[in-house]
Design a protein that fits this description.
Blueprint: H1 2-17, E1 24-31, E2 34-41, E3 48-57, E4 60-70, E5 76-80, E6 89-96, E7 101-104, E8 109-110, H2 145-152, H3 179-207
Antiparallel strand pairs: 1-2, 2-5, 3-4, 3-6, 6-7, 6-8
Length: 208
């Protein structure tokens, strides 16, 4: 009776310490900007296990990778570098203890709704740099026709009526204001001379 109880106790203890699928968990997380999938083995017996990761797409699957792990009571984690997409579905299969465990972690792993965020530096407001491009031809001022004409025209010649310095009448092309006076005096002198000549002739004729 005592031997049977001892055997039963050892059997229960052995089964309790044996590896089983409930000791494995999976999660989709981020390492910086890289997406990863981790599988943690909390098997106190330390049995060697093989973990297979599959991506489910429609009705097919794609093997992402395979990793070996030996669990502990505290847990040992293996990491698959899988840049998962939001809401992607993965199947995690575990084989351990020479086929004693050959099952999937249930339920299947579904990635979060949002992917790994990319950190971008927020640009600080700054004064825009002045443009270094050459001004277009349309920006250059176009001289008006009147301005170009007036600039090309020669300066007007000085008027003939302007008197040169010194006030000389020789520079004038027309008659001066004293010409009439001089002409009157000349006429008077001629008339007087003619009268004298006439009087002398008349006197000489009388004496003969």
């Amino acid at each position: 009776m005592a031997a049977a109880a001892t055997a039963l106790t050892l059997g229960v203890a052995g089964s309790a310490s044996a590896c089983n699928i409930s000791e494995f968990t999976a999660a989709a997380t981020c390492t910086g900007e890289q997406g990863v999938i981790t599988v943690t083995d909390k098997d106190p017996s330390g049995a060697k296990a093989t973990v297979e990761l599959y991506l489910k797409a429609g009705g097919s699957e794609k093997l992402i990778g395979t990793k070996d792990v030996e669990g502990t009571r505290e847990g040992v984690t293996v990491t698959f570098e899988e840049n998962w997409q939001p809401k992607a579905t993965y199947r995690v299969h575990v084989k351990a203890n020479g086929g004693q465990v050959d099952d999937d972690i249930k339920p299947n792993l579904t990635a979060p709704d949002k992917g790994c965020a990319t950190t971008t530096a927020t640009p600080s407001p700054s004064t825009p740099a002045p443009s270094t491009s050459a001004p277009s031809e349309s920006a250059k001022p176009t001289p008006s026709a009147s301005a170009s004409t007036s600039a090309a025209a020669p300066a007007p010649a000085p008027s003939n009526s302007a008197s040169p310095a010194g006030g000389s009448d020789l520079a004038e092309t027309g008659a001066s204001s004293n010409t009439g006076l001089f002409a009157g005096i000349a006429v008077a002198l001629v008339a007087a001379g003619g009268g004298v000549v006439f009087a002398l002739r008349k006197r000489g004729a009388a004496q003969r």
